[in-house]
Amino acid sequence: MLNQFLHEEWLQLIVVVIAGFLIGLEIKAYRVHHDASKEIGSVRTYAFIALMSYVFAKVDIYLYIVGYIAIITHFTLFYYFKLKSNRTGVLLFLLTSLVYSFGIIVIKFNIWFLVIVFVATVFISNINKRLEKFYEIFDEREIEIFAKVLLLSAVILPLLPQTEISEYIPVSFFKVWLAVVVVSLFSYVGYILKKYIFKETGYLLTGILGGIYSSTATTIVLAKKASSRRSYYLFSSSIIIATALMYLRLLGIAYAFNFKIASAIVVPFAFLTLITMISALVLFKKSKQQQKSDTHEPEDDKNPLELSTAFLFAFLFIAMATVTHFVLKNYGDVGLNILSFVVGFTDIDPFVLSILSSKFDVTISGASTAILIATGSNNILKALYAYAFSKNKTGIISGSVLFVLGLLTIAAGFIV
């Protein structure tokens, strides 16, 4: 409605001046908190700079450039004397340059883009205190790790062909790498949550977050830790809850790659998840009765997002797709079920994704059975790990539950 009462130029001018004035207030607040009274300019100065930027940009672009050269010259002289006082900050110059850009931004684009720039400026100028706390816990290697995430997803993936690799490998390089990206992202999210957000929240949450990216690895870590602890029920519940998250993770991956197969396994997976969570919560409630103080989280796991791991996963994915294609072609569903059971004693993600992503001559029921059998045998493997690495009551309790879950999961595979 405001545009109906004010000419567009007047509205632009008012918004630019107000934005400059508010940035001036922000700079004044910064001086008060950082004792920077020797810095140049006042609140009115930045309102005038914003006004000047709009007028100069409106009159002539060369006049606008001359105005900015004048500001740069002024700050160059000021910075020269500032260095003599052992002060090196350039924040004031950056903010002044942004304020001077307000005029040309509103002319070249629109008022809403100027508002976005203004909000971003205020947000970034106030983020320093939060960054100081972040620096205390930030691992510098995380920048490299995040770059790997972008490399896997945004750089490599779009470049890969979507045609099948060959007659005997019925998957495309695009689908292979998409599987790598999906699993890596699940791993990365779980790792970040565990390391930075829920760092000291106990073993149960360790099991929950660890289960997002690897229930097998989490079982081994917790079982090893349990070998020197007497909190049997606490560690057992943490190991079991990781498997509950495994069911949910696999179901999420299934929906991402093959909706029909995911719909076929959603009921047994939901039922098994419910049983697993109830078992974990019952054991956790019993652990409360022990009232042990040794309930802190173990050391951070190694970051799971390594490029060597990604390449190994891609190789396993292709290998599983090839083996599955051969088994189905020569031995049918019976051969696939036997292969599923054997694969469960390794890393099941490549096998599950090869089933979900490939165009095998297998029914929805056959594919669902294979996934459930592989998941069940993987639970049996974790039961063995839990006992072997803890060698105490934790291994007996958690191993027994995981073994039963494995049998139930395999049985569910023959029912679907």
Molecular structure report:
With 416 residues, this protein is mainly alpha-helical. It folds into two domains: 131 residues, no CATH class; 218 residues, no CATH class. Helix content is 80%, strand content 0%. It contains 17 helices and no strands. It starts with a helix and ends with a helix. About 2% of the residues have low confidence.
What amount of the residues lies in strands? Answer: under 5%
Task: Determine the N-to-C terminus distance.
Answer: 61 Å
Give the tally of β-strands: 0
Domain tally: 2
Shape: elongated
Quote the average pLDDT: 78
Brief synopsis:
This protein has 416 residues and is mostly helical. It has helices at residues 2-5, 8-34, 43-59, 61-84, 91-108, 111-125, 128-137, 141-156, 173-197, 203-213, 215-226, 232-257, 259-290, 307-343, 348-357, 364-390, 393-415. It folds into 2 domains: 2-132, no CATH class; 198-415, no CATH class.
Helix-strand layout with pairing:
Layout: H1 2-5, H2 8-34, H3 43-59, H4 61-84, H5 91-108, H6 111-125, H7 128-137, H8 141-156, H9 173-197, H10 203-213, H11 215-226, H12 232-257, H13 259-290, H14 307-343, H15 348-357, H16 364-390, H17 393-415
List keywords for this structure.
416 residues; mainly alpha; 17 helices; 0% strand
